[in-house]
Amino acid sequence: MHNKAALSRRDLLKKGSTGLAALAIGPSLLAISQPLAARTLANIGELQGPDANGIRLPAGFSSRVIAAAGQRVRRSFWNRTHYRWHSYPDGGATFATPDGGWVYVSNSETISLLGGGAGAIRFHADGSINDAYRILGGTNINCAGGPTPWQTWLSCEEVDFGRVYECDPFGASPARVRRGLGYFKHEAAAVDPVFNMVYLTEDEGDGRFYRFIPAGHHHDGSLNLDEGILQVAAMDSQGYVEWLDLPNPTPNALQTPTREQLPQSSAFDGGEGCWYSHGFVYFTTKGDNKVWQLDTNLNRLTVVYDAATSTNPILTGVDNLTVSSGGDLLVAEDGGDMQIVVIDTDGKVAPLLQVTGQDDSEITGPAFSPDGTRLYFSSQRGSDIFGGGNGFGITYEITGPFQQFVTL
């Protein structure tokens, strides 16, 4: 459950700017008639039976397959792009384009020899597919990552001494390693645009929670991610965090890993998804099925969901996450019941969707389109009824009346 102080501040902030997970929704008659307490994705309604793609959705929502691993992404049935969708799609995000469309970026959690890196699908303003292409190659086990306010994608390698690569979602510029973000088993990244810091999770049983303070800005307004100070969190019994400077943020294989350099820092059991929204950074830890909230003003961590103590523990295998502008957390399951689960600002927990028939897979990369009318995600090791993906991943789009369940 959210603490009361966090709730009141969050309720105020969510009425302001929409932040990175923009869910900009216009009013509708139904939304206006609903009481504010009801306008949360946690009240979206019961899931219906599986649709033609094997996805259970609330009434009024529908799904479509937009890409399958190994197959060229289609503009239409007969018109295909040149890009064969990568295997094992993982973390993702969307980016608005000048023509009113958007790009959905997706990592590939496999090794370089099998096409590891990241790819992107570009959409027209009406939601139809425009193009698809690679934005990162030659890397290994790119798991999650995070978008930046200056319209780039941070793709994280989940390997020992892994790097973070800054990628151009529009495919115009080459990806670059950002040394300032350290070398460790990276999972996800989230940029705080108010205090100009980057938060990072580490997928280890004794992983750490990191913060990067850049040396400054570039002329284009982006942060300098090559030079600065990488810190690690040390949490006290009340959840308050002291940030400790790492002595060697970029160790090699013969040197002490970052998570072991400062034993007084706090261990987190398998850091996964990480997202910034309205003054808070949220992240998940899969080893203990918890969802955490960092108040970036107070530097205080609280647990907003714990499967072991929740009165409605339907969320397990916590993994990637995103946040709607209404403040709802959307947490994807790695295993569990193959759901995307909503946690609202009152701590209510409810399923948003469920993928059936793919129990050996995991849900990855949840992200709303910039206008909030569509939700994207992947089944990392899934396939559709026609064999698309072949067990190496398939990516979906969900459409429906999201705006009726969002309080701005």
Largest sheet: 5 strands, antiparallel
Count the beta strands.
Answer: 28
Contiguous helical run count = 3
Structural class designation = mainly beta
Unreliable spans are 1-33
Radius of gyration: 20 Å
CATH fold label: Neuraminidase
InterPro entries: PhoX, TAT_signal, TAT_signal_bac_arc, WD40/YVTN_repeat-like_dom_sf
Organism: Alcanivorax profundi
Keywords: Signal
Protein name: DUF839 domain-containing protein
Short key terms for the protein model shown above:
mainly beta; single chain; disordered N terminus; Neuraminidase; WD40/YVTN_repeat-like_dom_sf; five-stranded antiparallel sheet; 408 residues; 28 strands; signal
Question: Can you characterise this structure?
Answer:
Keywords: Signal. Pfam families: PhoX. This is DUF839 domain-containing protein. The chain has 408 residues and is mainly beta. The protein has a single domain, classed as Neuraminidase. The protein is built from 3 helices and 28 strands. The strands form 7 sheets. Strands 1-25-24-23-22 form a 5-stranded antiparallel beta sheet, with no helix packed on it. The longest helix has 10 residues. The radius of gyration is 20 Å and the shape is globular. The N terminus is likely disordered.
Topology:
Elements: H1 4-13, H2 29-33, E1 55-56, E2 62-68, E3 72-74, E4 80-84, E5 89-96, E6 102-108, E7 117-123, E8 129-137, E9 142-147, E10 153-157, E11 164-167, E12 176-177, E13 186-192, E14 197-202, E15 209-214, E16 228-235, E17 241-245, H3 258-261, E18 271-277, E19 280-285, E20 290-295, E21 300-306, E22 318-323, E23 329-333, E24 339-343, E25 349-355, E26 363-368, E27 374-379, E28 394-399
Antiparallel strand pairs: 1-25, 2-28, 3-4, 5-6, 6-7, 7-8, 9-10, 10-11, 11-12, 13-14, 14-15, 15-16, 16-17, 18-19, 19-20, 20-21, 22-23, 23-24, 24-25, 26-27, 27-28
InterPro entries: PhoX, TAT_signal, TAT_signal_bac_arc, WD40/YVTN_repeat-like_dom_sf
Pfam family, one: PhoX
Organism: Alcanivorax profundi
